[in-house]
Amino acid sequence: MAPPARPADGRGGAAILRRYDQWTIRLEADAVIRGQGMDPAAVRERSPRIVAAAEAAIGQGRALLEPLVLARELAITAHEADRVVLEAGELPCGPDIAARLAPADRLIVVGATVGQTLDDHAIDSFSQDPMLALALHGVGSAAVEDLAEQACRHFRLEGRGDHRGCAILCWPGSAQWPNNLAQQQIFALLDPDGEAGDVIELTTSRLIRPAKSLSFLVGLTAEPVSDAEACDTCGLIPVCNFSGC
């Protein structure tokens, strides 16, 4: 897949919200089984029906995916002990995440979703075939994880064009950055005016909608960053084929 082009005015002032929708999602049965919270090796040994349901769900679910990545790239103007100061506002992320981002001079705020259609289809399917419905939910989980991994790779490669080729990932829900605070802070930067509410939003209960969506930060730096430092809070570590610089 050719990387989407960056808008020409993405550097001036408060950066525009960019939308990327040209993605090819990679799906396999083991990822769908993991997306249901199960160990693929154990399932393959004990329950071929679950494996068959995962394969059937891939066949049904692939056409229902609506992968979209939203991103806003902001210059970092200062680093403080418990926050990162940006060209448009600040990120009061606490000392751990602030220290992680200390080498970065740009921050990409990312929201990734595979849309609502698949989730609706899974809910509608439950009364007829609960096993298939659960597998369809697994397809959504696997798909959004693959989408987020591809987005990380894209922004890392995009940064290389600006000689900022190292990516520092900051993932909500880590011990260093509790989910109830992190999601609110990310969406305050990603979509402060609610212009993306038609495709992804943070609800009043601080849950992302659609359900099969993820948000995270990518700090870009020209300084060398080890794989361990770049990715150690990332929620995709168990399934990711990309790491560090």
Q: Could you explain the architecture of this structure?
A:
With 245 residues, this protein is an alpha+beta fold. The chain has helices at 29-35, 40-46, 48-61, 95-100, 117-125, 130-161, 179-190, 227-231; strands at residues 18-20, 68-79, 84-86, 90-91, 106-113, 166-170, 201-202, 208-209, 213-221. It contains eight helices and nine strands. The strands form two sheets. Strands 1, 2, 3, 4, 5, 6 and 9 form a seven-stranded antiparallel beta sheet that branches. A two-stranded antiparallel sheet has the order 7-8. A hairpin with a 3-residue loop joins strand 3 and strand 4. Helix 1 packs across helix 3, helix 1 (29-35) crosses helix 6 and helix 3 (48-61) crosses helix 6 (130-161). The chain is elongated, with a radius of gyration of 18 Å. It starts with 17 loop residues before the first strand and ends in a 14-residue tail after the last helix. Mean pLDDT is 87; it is low at 1-13.
Essential attributes:
9 strands; single chain; 245 residues; seven-stranded antiparallel β-sheet; 38% helix; elongated; NADH Oxidase; two-stranded antiparallel ribbon; alpha+beta
**What can be said about the biggest beta sheet?**
7 strands, antiparallel
Helix tally equals 8
Count of the separate structural domains: 1
In N-to-C order, the SSE pattern is EHHHEEEHEHHEHEEEH
Number of strands: 9
